[in-house]
Write a structure and sequence with these properties.
homodimer; 175 residues; alpha/beta; Rossmann fold; 7 helices; 5 strands
């Protein structure tokens, strides 16, 4: 794998801002004409037509198949931005093991704050009993131990967070 | 997806020559400096560390994740050669639906002949009772209805078969 090509994975609980921050980062790649692919839960679910549910095993399979595609793209010089919860040590270890140039960005936001914002309405659905297997609530989100970058998305604006990502990518030599 | 970039999928029962023919085709891409990726069962199994077995459901999941990676690579201008059994209509229909520039190459070889050759020793293992879920024997291989190219690998040499693939790719404008 080329040393200047990366798989940048945004992890964090539902509502922590993964999609928003990853999409803002994607704009930066685009404006710099750096080859990239952007993948998030909706894109993946759409391709696979919702074939996997939300059990631990299925979530792991889902993360793994994203990792497979991401690794291959990176092998061919395409940076990959992934906005995906990847909630377990086991599966993040898999990504780390399989993708040499993997960057883990942890969007650290308190459950209270994301429940309050509830961008996608997941927490409301959960309280109403129409949704289960909500990571961070009735299913574990195993907090990253050694993320390459941690962003406190519950305490800063999207612009502030994105600036931190850009600075990080500049320090890495990607931008 | 660029019109001149393809996902070329070699399907056929175990021992029909998928890997051999796909690898020979890969050499042709390489010698022409056309960007490509080559994927086969061993490569995929190795990446995923053998996490899926051989049930119908698991085989489908395995084909789908290859299709996902292949589609993304093709979006970025990388042709993809896949040597994978993809035994069911259902999953080949999925590939066709999801990948605009999909070429299906059917390696048609009689079970008698591949059992006789038994390149990987699968059929011997099956007879000895140490292997099950062998597609074409105790699990169905659903014969492709409308392959883009059919090759009778039990009646011709690898060189002859490969020449037919090259001719096909030339006619398609890929070579």
């Amino acid at each position: 794998m080329r040393k200047d090509v990366y798989v940048i994975w945004f992890t964090g609980i539902s509502g922590s801002g993964k999609t928003t921050v990853a999409m803002e980062t994607a704009k930066e790649f685009k404006s710099r004409n750096i080859p990239f692919e952007y993948l998030d839960g909706d894109i993946v679910r759409n391709f696979f037509e919702g074939d996997l549910g939300y059990s631990r095993k299925e979530r792991i399979l889902n993360v793994r198949r994203i990792a497979f595609a991401a690794e291959l793209l990176a092998e061919h010089g395409i940076n990959v931005l992934v906005a995906n919860i990847a909630p377990y040590y086991e599966v993040r270890d898999f990504i780390r093991r399989k993708i040499p140039n993997y960057i883990q960005i942890f969007l650290d936001a308190s459950l209270e704050k994301v429940m309050e914002r509830d961008v996608k309405g997941h927490y409301k659905k959960f309280k109403a009993g129409t949704m289960s297997s909500l990571i961070g609530v009735d299913d574990d989100y195993e907090r990253p131990r050694n993320p390459d970058l941690t962003l406190h998305t519950d305490k800063e604006t999207v612009v502030e967070t994105t600036e931190k990502v850009i600075k990080f990518l500049k320090d890495k030599g990607i931008f």
